[in-house]
Design a protein that fits this description.
Elements: E1 2-3, E2 8-11, H1 13-22, E3 34-38, E4 41-48, E5 51-54, H2 56-68, E6 71-77, E7 83-89, H3 93-105
Antiparallel strand pairs: 1-2, 2-5, 3-4, 3-6, 4-5, 6-7
């Protein structure tokens, strides 16, 4: 998970590993929404260059829920119709965000 002052992105390295196991020609289907689930709160997003982005309208609320949450799950569909789910722990995220904010003030 990458967070800057303006954007949240989720590195999909776990998803990339699953895509490799499905075959070298498997890609994320850009025509299907990506579901981002934080402890039962669902958001939709999109993928670009192996990163998942939430839609701008959801980003602030999503960040708040990530700080309060425990688990973030990503669901997406590949071009060949396979569904992939990847799970991330949000433990320690608030501390990381505070560290980023302190460093960015300098």
């Amino acid at each position: 998970i990458a967070i800057s002052k303006r954007k949240i992105t989720v590195s999909t390295s776990g998803v990339a590993d699953q895509l490799k196991r499905l075959g070298p020609e498997t890609e994320i289907n850009p025509n299907k929404p990506i579901t981002i689930n934080i402890d039962g709160r669902k958001y939709t997003g999109f993928s670009h260059n192996n990163f998942i982005f939430p839609f701008d309208k959801d980003e602030k609320q999503m960040l708040k829920n990530m700080q309060r949450g425990k688990i973030l799950k990503i669901n997406l569909m590949t071009m060949n119709g396979s569904t992939i789910e990847d799970t991330y722990s949000l433990r320690g995220l608030t501390k990381i965000i505070k560290t980023i904010n302190r460093a960015c003030r300098r």
